[in-house]
Automatic annotation (TrEMBL):
GO terms for cellular component: nucleus. InterPro entries: SATB1/SATB2, SATB_ULD_sf, ULD. GO terms for biological process: chromatin remodeling. Keywords: DNA-binding, Homeobox, Nucleus, Repeat, Ubl conjugation. This is CMP domain-containing protein. Residues 7-119 form the CMP domain. Transmembrane segments: none annotated. GO terms for molecular function: DNA-binding transcription factor activity, RNA polymerase II-specific; RNA polymerase II cis-regulatory region sequence-specific DNA binding.
Length: 171
């Protein structure tokens, strides 16, 4: 029997790149060096269960690499074999439930799973807002103490953090 039939898991080389828009990820071309390159966040190996459905390979790899489910939800994957053009995962199999080992079981030493994730680029407004929030946190302790606030520093820090986090997430 070939190795991949008996294997319970497979090592898979993964490269996670971040872009500021998913449209930018479609324009990546190794032959056009003047185009903006994505930021490589992770270049590592993960162990994937051989029976993992093909449709779940990106989410499984990102989970093993420590990325959040929110990041995985918008991620896109493609396979790279040496110097070939990347092949999107949807182009490889019509059956999303086929096990990973049936597709790349014998190729794990030459294939790379390229995953593109979306990272929001902070706007100038967002950068200013973040700086103001940091300043508010720094200034808040002295200001609250001067107004006679009965809470200790730890309590005020937690309250301010949660309030600012909720404001930041809602903006």
């Amino acid at each position: 029997f070939p190795f991949f039939v008996l294997a319970k898991s497979l090592p898979l080389h993964c490269v996670v790149e971040s872009v500021h828009s998913l449209q930018a990820s479609l324009n990546i071309d190794n032959r056009s060096p003047w185009k903006r390159r994505p930021n490589v966040e992770t270049d590592s190996y993960v162990i994937i269960a051989a029976a993992t459905p093909w449709s779940e390979i990106v989410q499984t790899a990102l989970q093993r690499l420590g990325y959040s489910q929110e990041t995985a939800a918008t991620a896109r994957g493609s396979l790279i074999i040496k110097n070939w053009k990347p092949i999107t995962l949807e182009q490889i199999s019509d059956n999303p439930m086929v096990p990973v080992c049936d597709i790349i079981g014998e190729l794990t030493s030459v294939v790379t799973l390229r995953i593109v994730i979306l990272r929001c680029k902070p706007s100038p407004f967002g950068e200013i807002k973040d700086k103001l929030l940091k300043l508010l946190v720094l200034q808040s302790h002295a200001l609250l103490r001067s107004t006679g606030c009965p809470l200790d520093e730890v309590s005020t820090s937690k309250t301010i953090f949660y309030s600012l986090f909720n404001v930041r997430c809602s903006l």
